[in-house]
Write a structure and sequence with these properties.
With 305 residues, the chain is of the alpha/beta class. The chain has a single domain, classed as Rossmann fold, CATH 3.40.50. The chain is built from 13 helices and eight strands. It has an eight-stranded mixed β-sheet, sandwiched between helices. Helix 11 links the parallel strand 7 and strand 8. The longest helix is centred in the last third of the chain and has 16 residues. It is globular.
């Protein structure tokens, strides 16, 4: 027994401080340190929360969104069973550089970031604009991308009402934060969920990401419009995605039409479709508990490295 205990003590002492720190990550989206990695001439800002080991889940953000625009109720819940990586792509938030005005370059930059962290295999959660990037990465990098979650997004030629919806949301006087109109319906239930969402996303007070400026919005809007209005009659992009895909949307997405999610579901080789009732572009935030459960079921038990 003494030999066994001694061997165990020796093994523990052999663990380096870095290995020990990596074993457990108790940080949350609100408390995790913002880190940086340099690759391809870009100084990428990112945070990692959750379980070490297994296949990392990389989150790809929406139009003009930064790390702190993610919902902690989603990120922290996913982090209970997965290693979750959130980051600012080129020119957004605390990441330097010029924001690309096309999905192809945004995808290339996201790939540069993922490789800079040394990941050999990842799962992707792409929300809205991020879903367009996720599709591109999944099609181009089948060895890297394991599984894909596409939330409130569309494929090539899926359509959009981006400019009209954003203009209306910014001109209305009822809600100080336009996300209440962009992400939620006008029902009492949905609006109540929206208020809770805004409280959660404003919880971090220290070391918050810088807000985005008009140059980010202009470039990203151009990329979204070009991608969503350029027909892909043969479904070449979706046809190149063989990985399992979970598609999630709201019953009435006014920005990126709900019907686009159904069309993706029909075109993909291996897809599941989930639609939440009485919900808009922020369906995954309104139904955050159900969404996390769906993602965990889809991804399965975390594998070990």
């Amino acid at each position: 027994m003494k030999k066994l205990i001694g061997a165990f003590a020796l093994a523990v002492s052999a663990i380096t401080p870095l290995q020990s720190a990596m074993a457990v990550n108790n940080s949350t989206l609100e408390t995790a340190q913002t880190k940086f990695v340099d690759a391809g001439g870009i100084h990428f800002a990112y945070r990692i929360v959750g379980r070490e080991g297994g296949t990392p889940l990389v989150l790809l953000q929406h139009f003009t969104g930064t790390i702190d625009y993610w919902d902690p109720a989603v990120v922290n819940a996913l982090a209970k069973t997965h290693e979750v990586v959130v980051f600012d792509n080129t020119g957004v938030g605390a990441t330097n550089g010029k924001v690309p005005d096309n999905i192809e370059q945004m995808s290339a930059d996201a790939l540069t970031f993922i490789k800079a962290l040394g990941f050999k295999k990842v799962d992707l959660l792409g929300y809205s604009l991020g879903g367009m990037i996720a599709q591109t990465l999944a099609a181009q990098e089948p060895q890297l991308v394991h599984k894909v979650i596409l939330a409130n997004t569309v494929s090539h030629g899926g359509g959009n009402d981006l400019l009209n919806v954003i203009t209306q949301a910014q001109s209305q006087k009822t809600h100080p934060d336009p996300r209440m109109v962009l992400f939620f319906t006008d029902s009492k239930r949905s609006l109540a969920a929206g208020e809770e969402f805004l409280k959660r996303t404003s919880a971090r007070k220290i070391d918050r990401d810088p807000e985005t400026g008009p140059q980010v919005a202009q470039a990203q809007a151009k990329a979204i419009i070009q991608f969503s209005t350029t027909p892909d009659v043969s479904n070449a992009l979706l046809g190149s995605i063989a990985q399992p895909v979970l598609i999630v949307t709201g019953s009435n997405d006014t920005m990126l039409p709900t019907k686009g999610s159904y069309e993706m579901f029909r075109a993909l080789k291996n897809a599941q479709l989930v639609m939440y009732p009485d919900s808009n572009h922020g369906a995954i935030f309104q139904y955050h508990s159900q969404f996390v459960a769906e993602v965990n079921n889809f991804l399965g038990a975390p594998d070990t490295m």
